[in-house]
Write a structure and sequence with these properties.
The protein folds into 2 domains: 5-100 and 223-298, Collagenase (Catalytic Domain), CATH 3.40.390; 104-220, Helix Hairpins (Orthogonal Bundle), CATH 1.10.287. The relative contact order is 0.16. It has helices at 8-21, 23-28, 51-69, 90-103, 105-156, 162-220, 245-259, 288-298; strands at 36-43, 74-76, 82-86, 230-232, 236-239. It is 63% helix and 8% strand. The protein binds zinc ion.
Length: 300
């Protein structure tokens, strides 16, 4: 199955040749009379799916049809020649990248990422500066109130002896110069705050633009990508791409349907609709069209 029409004709032709090859055989035996034994073939780990999970997804996908047929139709056998492959294909990913570039999505994505990381870096430095300032300010305040208290104490006693007066004067000079430094720091932080806000605005404008382009892109490609997500080859099933677990299970269900000789049906909500991903939000549930097609090939 596929995400959108580009490769449809090729895939369909391959399907036709397979089907006519089976024609004589099918007249005497429905593809559902015998269980289909499968094994796992190529298993690329880049998707981050474990083999055990993959096997359980195949079981779940198969059970969608098995529930209707009321029998075990798909049986795992490590020696089976029918192979289900999970293929991480650089070519497909390159094609997806090319498509995003042609659409202008890559450019806006790159600019956004650049702005976003500039903003993050600036914000880190800014936060550090602010936190230095805040601890210096706290230290100044506590030293200042200690000074004030001591001065008030001596004043209430009519003044301080010469040595103490001089050390208090030194403290006063220090506090004044520290106050000056902190004031300068405040204006420099205020300038940085403005710069930070400008960067944030630019970043957010770009984010909005990115979201807009991405929305158009998704609309055009139907939330998916213009290449084969998965295919039934006659000798096995290849899975190339999926966005989440449900999407993967749907793809497997669709291809197992082909393995039972099912064809595409017209309802966009159907498992056997030629574009996948539309009903990936929910677990695959056969529509009336799916059931009619299953009935036709399996002669329930
Ligand atoms: Zn298909």
């Amino acid at each position: 199955m596929k995400k959108f029409g580009q490769f449809f004709s090729t895939i369909f032709l391959i399907g036709l040749i397979g089907a006519s090859g089976y024609f004589v055989y099918e007249q005497t035996l429905s593809p559902c009379d015998k269980p289909l034994e499968y094994s796992i073939g190529r298993f690329d780990t880049q998707f981050g799916v474990s083999k055990e999970d993959f096997k359980s997804y195949i079981t779940q996908a198969g059970s969608v049809w098995e529930k209707v047929l009321h029998k075990k139709q798909f049986i795992y056998n490590p020696k089976a020649s029918f192979k289900i492959n999970l293929i991480y294909d650089e070519k497909q990913l390159t094609m997806m990248q090319k498509q995003k570039t042609e659409f202008g999505l890559s450019a806006v994505e790159d600019t956004f990422k650049k702005l976003d990381s500039e903003f993050s870096l600036f914000k880190t430095q800014y936060n550090q500066k602010v936190s230095f300032y805040e601890s210096a300010l706290a230290a100044y305040k506590s030293r200042k109130s200690a000074y004030d208290a001591e001065v008030a104490g001596w004043n209430s006693r009519g003044g301080a002896p010469k040595g103490i007066f001089e050390s208090l004067e030194q403290e006063r000079y220090y506090l004044n110069s520290e106050a000056q430094r902190l004031n300068n720091e405040t204006s420099s932080i205020n300038e940085l705050t403005e710069e930070l806000n400008t960067l944030l605005r630019e970043r957010n404008t770009k984010a909005a633009e990115y979201n807009r382009v991405a929305r158009d892109y998704n609309r055009k490609y139907n939330g998916g990508l213009e290449f084969n997500q998965a295919e039934y080859t006659g000798k096995g099933i290849n899975i190339y791409q999926f966005s989440n677990k449900k999407d993967l299970i749907l793809a497997l269900t669709h291809e197992l349907g082909h393995a039972l000789s099912m064809d595409h049906v017209e309802n966009p909500k159907s498992i056997m609709y030629y574009i996948t991903g539309i009903n990936a939000e929910t677990s695959p549930v056969p529509t009336a069209e799916d059931l009619a097609e299953l009935n036709k090939v399996c002669k329930i």
